Input
Amino acid sequence: MSSENRISVPNSLNEHWMPFTSNKDFKENPRLITEAKGVYIKNHKGKTMIDGSSGLFCNPLGHGRKEIISAVTKQLEQLDYCQPFQQGFGGSFELATKIARHTPGDLNRIFYTICGSTAVETAIKIAIAYHRAKGDSKRFRFVGRERAYHGMNIGATSVGGMINNVKTFASVLMPGVLHMRHTHLPEHKFISGQPETGAELANDLERICANFGGENIAACIVEPVAGSTGVLVPPKGYLQKLREICDKHEILLIFDEVITGWGRMGSAFASQEFGVTPDMITMAKATTNGIVPMGVVACKEEIYDAVMDASPKGAVELFHGYTYSGIPVSVAAALAVQDIFEKEDIFNRVKDMVSYFQKSLFSLKDLEAVENIRGYGLMGGIDMKLKNKPGKAGFECFKSCYEAGVNFKATGDCLIIAPQFICEKKHIDEIIDKLRIGISNYTKNQKN
Ligand SMILES: Cc1ncc(COP(=O)(O)O)c(C=O)c1O
Output
């Protein structure tokens, strides 16, 4: 097929089984994206839309960044692949040093994976390897949280907390995983920033320790702000409490920062934004500006040292890794992203835009179909009033907004808005104006 044909509707949509998609609905009314530049994307009908969620939260530096494309192209021409086991290339070490400059505390040991799911899977395995290395092999339990999304392999699905993602696969999920309650309370209505109430929900971890033995728990994993299930911002003091309970029971605390990492909250990581240092951080998405897949686990030095010290010299210390762990093309993209973060002072740029974005987002409060709004940093969730069936309002509203010229990610009945970090005020205005039109049209259509 020529590249020209690829931008129109292909002859057949039957063969491609699309992920996390209503395939039947899509194939009747396809939404094919043909071009992306800066904050805009274009579909196969020639319609230009503003990107209201940075792709899947992964292109915050804008689409079509020349610096990244050129770094990737150069890398491919020079060294297209290098096997990552018992071999390496300079770039991955340079990148690890750069990443470690931004991670909090001494989370200075960097393990590369392929994506967010594999970063979470890796963190789970590292937690087990660490405890075993210290002679503590009875810790097999993991604690996750309701309404968490950590990805789609078995480990990440097990610690996740979204019912539709687990019910089909319940029979093969990891044993021993327990879930804390989520942090969204009924009184959390139209709050921008951290809710004042709900810190005590962290005591769920203490309760799990009391019931199942803290000494049996390897790690507790949370998204500092739950992203995919609707931007659930942690109540004030909640993450601090989790940290204290983990310390008390020597449980590793993992922050899954696949969405919140690399500036979305206004600091490099949510960890710094909320003043809580975990033992591991998982990241992906913005690490390469979404151009090529890459995941990362940053571990505190003690974890690395324990695993290293448990093996004799010459032995493989951790029996884990991927064919695409830190391959040249991903590393080249990530290094170019690091350069842009620095040159364009991206994290401060986000910080400066936060109050404008949050104020604009909350201006949608008056819309009839809007049930609730939450937000932190450059991220916000708009809950739609439920229609007869969960998920229907969100999906229909997403389609109406798409027609109005703004694209974003909807999960269930929540519209998740996450503008690119390079957005100017006029782009935020455009996102909000088009959301207003799209949501209002959705309401009108419901009445007709
Ligand atoms: C917090 C979090 N963790 C993990 C993942 C999984 O990442 P991936 O889709 O790259 O496997 C996601 C994806 O949205 C995520 O939001």
